[in-house]
Amino acid sequence: MSIHSPAADWFKAPTGHERLWIGLAVGWCIVLSLMMPYWHFKGKQNSSGETYRTTPEEFQARVEKFSEANAPGTRDNFAEGLNVEVPAPPGDIYLIAKQYFWYPILKLRAGETYRVHMSSVDFQHGFSLQPMNMNFQVIPGYDHVLTLTPQAPGIYPIVCNEFCGVGHHTMVGKIIVE
Ligand SMILES: [Cu+2]
């Protein structure tokens, strides 16, 4: 049995409080939509959008070279699933995501400027730096460069905020700033 069609004059224009609340909701949607382009130009935590094509093999090789240059004897750590603290000089540094860890534990110095190259060797992961809540996608095949200058010493946890498998909730890393 089919549903009956509504009566031809079913629509009643909202009035009174209903009209007011719909107006407020639509107005707020417009404000939030305008905030997106506004923060893109005025925000201080935006990605520069600098991205290059890479492959998981090539990126892993660069990470291993970086790890070995700054923490000798750790070339094979990533492949073996072992993490390590790597004191990184200012300039190009690397962070790689894999089910279910972030490698390496970067040790940075406050006030220096770094170009953090991020990529994944398996699936899409989400780089979320706490507590400032900066969020970026980490996608295999892309080298996403974040330029950052840490301001204050501390230990900053990285969590994966893109569901990537059964161990997703254990995928945490950290950046140490001295
Ligand atoms: Cu994840």
Keyphrases for this structure?
single chain; about 180 residues; alpha/beta; Immunoglobulin-like; six-stranded mixed β-sheet; five-stranded mixed β-sheet; 2 helices; 11 strands; about 25% helix; binds copper (II) ion
| Share of residues in helices | 10-25%
What is the terminal-to-terminal distance?
Answer: 72 Å
Question: Over the alpha carbons, how many angstroms does the gyration radius reach?
Answer: 23 Å
Question: What is the CATH H-level superfamily?
Answer: Cupredoxins -  blue copper proteins
Give the percentage of residues in beta strands.
Answer: 25-35%
Look up the CATH topology: Immunoglobulin-like
Outline, from the CA principal axes?
elongated
| CATH architectural arrangement | Sandwich
- Main CATH class: Mainly Beta
- What low-confidence regions span 5 or more consecutive residues with pLDDT below 50? none
- Mean pLDDT, to the nearest integer, reads 92
Explain how this protein is built.
With 178 residues, this protein is an alpha/beta fold. It has one domain: Cupredoxins -  blue copper proteins (Immunoglobulin-like), CATH 2.60.40. The protein has 2 helices and 11 strands; from the N terminus they run H-E-H-E-E-E-E-E-E-E-E-E-E. The strands form 2 sheets. Strands 2-5-11-10-7-8 form a 6-stranded mixed sheet, with no helix packed on it. A 5-stranded mixed sheet has the order 1-9-6-3-4, covered by helices on one side. Strand 7 and strand 8 form a beta hairpin. The longest helix is centred in the N-terminal third of the chain and has 27 residues. The radius of gyration is 23 Å and the shape is elongated. The mean pLDDT is 92. The structure holds copper (II) ion. Copper (II) ion binds next to loops.
